[in-house]
Amino acid sequence: HGVSPPPADSCDGDVELSAARHQPEGLEQLQAHTKFTKKELQSLYRGFKNDCPSGHVDEETFTLIYAQFFPQGDSSAYAHFLFNAFDADGSGALCFEDFVVGLSVLLRGTAQEKLSWAFNLYDINKDGCITKEVLWGGHGGGDREMLEIMKSIYDMMGRCTLPAPRDSAPAEHVEHFFQ
Predict the structure, then answer these.
(1) How far apart are CA 7 and CA 159, in angstroms?
(2) In this entry, which stretches build a coiled coil (predicted)?
(3) What are the residue ranges of helices labelled H in the chain?
(4) Cα 165 to Cα 173: distance, rounded to the nearest angstrom
(5) If you classify domain 35-135+142-178 with CATH, what class do you get?
(6) What is the pLDDT of residues 12-44, one digit of tens each?
(7) What angle separates helix 145-157 from helix 111-122, to the nearest 10 degrees?
(8) Distance between CA 14 and CA 22 in Å, rounded?
(9) Least confident stretch, 75-84, 124-133, 134-143
(10) What is the DSSP letter of 6?
(11) How many other CB atoms sit within 10 Å of the CB of residue 121?
């Protein structure tokens, strides 16, 4: 009678083969949706899988990775906003596609694409506008979006910037931006 075949849902071997190939799934689709070449996508995928073997990055891991670039300050608040901008589907984890699509816009997007991406980063509550400060009847969190992001950038850069920024610097920066 012989040995029965493995169950249909057993795909461990396929997963190992996929990881060994260093090639993302849907490579042609990713090429169509980004401005990277096939070789660039394969190279980015190798780096991504090396840092994130599971194929997904949660916000905590993203924040830890990002903190390595800004050891002189506290980048956690800015990393939170950045993570949400990359996490286009709001799943709470970045897959390779989320990462590479965002990176493509930031590195090779048109001016309009970059502006749209930046707007999405600043529009914390996703209501289609960026607010400057607390508004009467505001509903918490997202009603002072520009100031929250600007504070997070100053925190990330740390106190070692010269000259040292005044405590009022983020608010002044926001005021100038809106003018």
Answers:
(1) 59
(2) none
(3) 12-21, 27-33, 38-51, 59-67, 76-86, 96-108, 111-122, 145-157, 169-178
(4) 11
(5) mainly alpha
(6) 444 444 444 567 888 899 999 999 999 999 999
(7) 100
(8) 13
(9) 134-143
(10) P
(11) 18
